[in-house]
Amino acid sequence: MSWPDLALRLTERLLGPAVMLETARYLLIDPPRHDQRQYRHFAPNLTHGDRTILKVQHWLRTEPARDATVADMTRLSGLEERTFLRRFHKATSLTPLAYLQHLRVEKGRDLLETTSLPLDQIAWEVGYQDSRAFRKIFTRLMGQPPADYRRRLSRQSQHD
Question: pLDDT tens-digit profile of 97-118?
């Protein structure tokens, strides 16, 4: 969707914000946003070559890892904690906790898109006992609260 955004940005720059907004309404597209986080999917690096970290990454995608902690990851790796943290960050460019949050938000996002489950249940399904914690992390990573994300999707599907 970068071409419509570019066209609307150019329209705004050349003809002003009012014309750009009217054009966006006419074309039934959202005005360009600075924040594109909602369109990004978490695609972890699995080609880094560190087999120990790769083992932990694969485990994190399984159901038993839903309530994983950094201590669990360290134990699975068989490394000392400091060594594990350093190697995990080197391989993934994220801390283990940030990586886990990205995985959970991605799964929560899928559930928001494909189910009508209440937010409390989605938070529980992805490993959060407190839906407020999930909501806060989702908002930080996606740029909008889960309810707004779901509402936006339902509006888009009505236009399709």
Answer: 999 999 999 999 999 989 999 9
* Contact by Cβ (8 Å): 52, 63: no
- Short-list 129, 123, 128, 72, CA closest to 96: 72
Residues 60-94 pLDDT 10s: 999 888 889 999 999 999 999 999 999 999 999 99
Question: What CA–CA distance (Å, rounded) separates 100 from 88?
Answer: 12
Q: Is the pTM of this model over 0.85?
A: no
Could you give all domains of the chain from N- to C-terminal order, each with its CATH number? 2-34 (no CATH), 51-159 (1.10.10.60)
* Conformation bin of residue 78: beta by default, left when phi > 0, alpha when psi is -120 to 50: left
- Residue 125 CB contacts under 8 Å (≥ 6 apart), including other chains: 107, 108, 111, 117
